[in-house]
Amino acid sequence: MIDQLLIGAILLIALVFFVWDRWRYDIVGMGALLLAAIVGLVPAQEVFAGFGNAAVITVAAVLVISHALWHSGVVDALATLVKKAGDRPWVQMLVLTSLTTFVSAFISNTGAMAIMIPVALQLARVNNGSASRVLMPMAFGSLLGGTITMIGTPPNIIISDIRAQATGESFGIFDFTPVGLSVAVGGLVLMWLVSRWLVPDKAGRNKSNSPYDLTSYLTEIYIPPENDLIGSTLYELESKVKENFAVVALKRGKNQITAPPRYQRFKAEDVLIVEADADTLQQILDITNFELNADEEIDERFLVSDEIKVIEGIVGHDSRLIGRSAADLRLRHRFGVNVLAVARHGQTLKPSLSNVRFKPGDVLLLQGDSEVLNDVFVRFGCFPLAQRSLRIGNQKQFILPITIFASAILLSALGLLSVPVAFTLAAGLMVVTNVMPLRELYENIEWPIIVLLGATIPLGGALERSGAADTLANAALAISQDAPAAVAIIVLMVATILLSNIVNNAAAAVLMAPIGISMAGSLGASIDPFLMAVAIGAALPFLTPIGHQSNILVMGPGGYSFSDYWKLGLPLTVLVVAMAVPIILWMWPLSA
């Protein structure tokens, strides 16, 4: 009993920290594992055994393959088909959500959304539409697509491995398809019918060609002859002014230097195009004795040139920017990149960015060299919103990754190779054949997910060994006492859905699977329908933006608030439960 109370307390504390989001979920998961090890709930030889689990290796391999398909242009080629859908909003909704759902069945949900969000935004701007109407259904479609195959989402991979440990045989790659595909089709139809009324129209954020009113903060400053700073560098000017500002261009006669480098020296009669709020602008004028060109017409043509671009990007769920400000990161000093604006929930934050701490889903407007910007996005875990050029290259590069990927699916489906071996081999071949450069191999594995899985798998074992899983299972069965066994499946699925909306879905699968197995044991039933219920519940957190990375990614570009998600998410969740349970029981009967 003491062990049950201890593991319950540890998991409850971890749950609180997951919701608080002060530390990233992998740190919380590892902390919970170490605490469980210290109090003796996890044997010493099993503390780090989770990192050698087949599910962890499979998830890593699938992430590598997903990026390789993205890098080769395969998914981009599919995305371009959307442009042929026409300018009718309902047709665009149908095509965007369907394509996102299909792609998510085979690559990571996050990777699919990173490709499709720019497409949706471009269509909205070209057709003067509202991207907010389609971005949330796209995110939910990516979650639905993940349920179609075993490799579509980490919870399916985890559940398959847990079944292998319990019965000696894992789920096959397409064993999830009857339930997942049915739910995906039903969910898409529901969203096509009702999203018009349940998804908010953030018209002010989406219908503008630019989400930021930068012209309000662009000012011309004139450097008069004989000024003391003539001959000084831009770096020296930045050192004198304490507040954060950006010199986005320098005009010298008929020439213009966009995003001038820090070593740029000033000459008499130079004109600086500065982005700053009123207080910072006044500080610059007081310190430098420069003059204000208040009567000049300023527009955004000064922001870009042949080499310098302005690109929007979303702060990812595990970005290195989270919790830090532009001043902390010194992006201007280190990379020559200006942070021009930050939008949160569709609203532009104050122009002085020195104290703005970035959050997941924030949309940043960055100015700099186009190649440097690409590196910055990768380095800091952001997703660019600019329309990407196709990376198809030649036909060989396009066909090869598809061949490798299809071969892995076929070999695993036929049982010639196990799923971990088939997909690890495919990931290796993607690198060996240079479909994905070797230098990008480890950069594109979501290590926080890997660490979280490695940490929570032993916790799931501790939950089972201590008897806590049996206790929770009996409590769940008590709720459904004297009711058909199908009610127990519903209770388990609903509990998993609620948990996955506040913690990472992989962690939800790991923690709820032992409870499902215990419920099956108490009823003398097969574990398969219970594991399938956990898989569906863990993969479909529609109620909150923090439930899944895809939900977070659309929060900024769509201008959504936290409370916007449940309006469409709740009826979609009800539909999923209503459809999934009878299909699960038909495909996977309770009789063992």
From TrEMBL:
Gene3D superfamilies: Regulator of K+ conductance, C-terminal domain. GO terms for biological process: potassium ion transport. It is a multi-pass membrane protein. The chain crosses the membrane at residues 5-21, 27-44, 51-70, 90-123, 135-159, 179-199, 398-425, 445-463, 475-499, 505-523, 530-548, 568-588. It is found in: Membrane. Keywords: Membrane, Repeat, Transmembrane, Transmembrane helix, Transport. GO terms for cellular component: plasma membrane. PROSITE patterns: RCK_C (PS51202). One of its GO terms (molecular function) is monoatomic cation transmembrane transporter activity. InterPro entries: Cit_transptr-like_dom, DASS-Related_Transporters, RCK_C, RCK_C_sf. Residues 205-290, 297-383 form the RCK C-terminal domain. It comes from the Bacteria. Its main location: membrane. This is SLC13 family permease. It comes from Pseudidiomarina aestuarii.
